[in-house]
Amino acid sequence: MDQFVSPKNIFHGKGSIERLRDILNEEQVKKVVLITDPMLKKLEVINPVLQLLDQEKADVDIITNVVPEPPLKVGNEVVDEVRSKQADLVIGVGGGSALDLAKAASVLAENEGIVEDFLNLSGTKKPEAKGLPKVLIPTTSGTGAEVTDIAVFSLEDTKDVITHENLLADYAIVDPVLTYTLPSKVTAASGVDAFTHALEAYTSVNATPLTDTLAIDAMKRIIGNLRTAVWNGKDEYAREQMSLGSLIAGLSFYNAGVAGVHGLAYPLGGLFKIPHGESNAVLLPYVYDYIWPASLNKMVKVAEIFNLPTEGKSDRQLAIDVVQSLQDLVKDVGLPTKLQEYSIKEDDIERLAQNGVEQKRLLNRSPKKLDLDLIRKIYQNAYDGKLLSD
């Protein structure tokens, strides 16, 4: 029997930020903690949220010590700050890191312990108290963090997560207007991240007919609009389609799960501080270069989504063409396509492989088993920039 889980309330569309007024009234909010990236505050991206909170006469404390790929130290600092504020509501505004910190802090503020206690791989606790109500408002089209119960933290040489149903948003507001000013590189990285969510959910061993339907829709929207959103950021239709595609991909991967691409991307973020979206992008074609035989029927469907020529081609050739299209997509939006471009050395491959094979929570969803030897080959090919068909 399949199960599908999502936040109870999801608001999407241009102007949906206005629904925050209803939330404040419904939750009888007097004091708010808003967690956001310092650059978003400086660039006034969060101003529409602040203006609305001011109009509703809410007392607001802003926490801006958000950093990309937050380490445990930052996570604990934000948790301590939220604990000290005695707020009625936590609002996270920003990319995945801001939303993850908001999720973790809203829950751990009302549970005893530090972030380390609740980590998936090494922690010993689960949050018992539901925590403070939370509203998650993404400013990128990519992470899907607004509809998942996962908060990711960087460790010394890899990443780990807190994952628990209590981290799920009470309200997710996905207003594409907040993405209109995203720089092209962030648009590219977050957009490929969203596509990776959809593709990995589609080929996950935990995929269901419902998650497949969502994943296919998300891939169509993203493929049809990502390049335009990156290179013509003023195109509102492309921005809106990317926003919706990211949300739909998030709902799909939250239920079906992501797998090898994300699992092998974690050590890139932990060891080399490569941003999450870029870590996924640089590995995406090389992982599927090895695993497509285990998802051949679905790869043929992805070929349709890419509008690839099918006449006279076997399913095998179409799958190989999809892998090349994945690399072309990454290249077309201006992102690196091999690990050497991140100053990673060939000597680092073994360390990456040893860390990657530990990400069993993710690797277990891969349609093809990814053992240490295969993981080592994937990193080597990503280092060389070589696909098997080259």
From TrEMBL:
Kindly give the Gene3D superfamilies that the UniProt entry links to this protein: 3.40.50.1970, Dehydroquinate synthase-like - alpha domain
Keyword Glycoprotein on entry: no
| InterPro entries assigned | ADH_Fe/GldA, ADH_Fe_C, ADH_Fe_CS, Alcohol_dehydrogenase_Fe
Identify the CDD domains for this entry: Fe-ADH (cd08551)
Q: Source species, please?
A: Salinibacillus kushneri
Q: Give residue ranges for domain Fe-containing alcohol dehydrogenase-like C-terminal.
A: 187-383
Q: What is this protein called?
A: Alcohol dehydrogenase, class IV
* GO MF annotations, alphabetized: alcohol dehydrogenase (NAD+) activity; metal ion binding
User: Where's the Alcohol dehydrogenase iron-type/glycerol dehydrogenase GldA domain?
Assistant: 7-176
Q: Which family does it belong to?
A: Belongs to the iron-containing alcohol dehydrogenase family.
Q: Which UniProt keywords apply?
A: NAD, Oxidoreductase
Signal peptide coordinates:
none
Pfam families xrefs: ADH_Fe_C, Fe-ADH
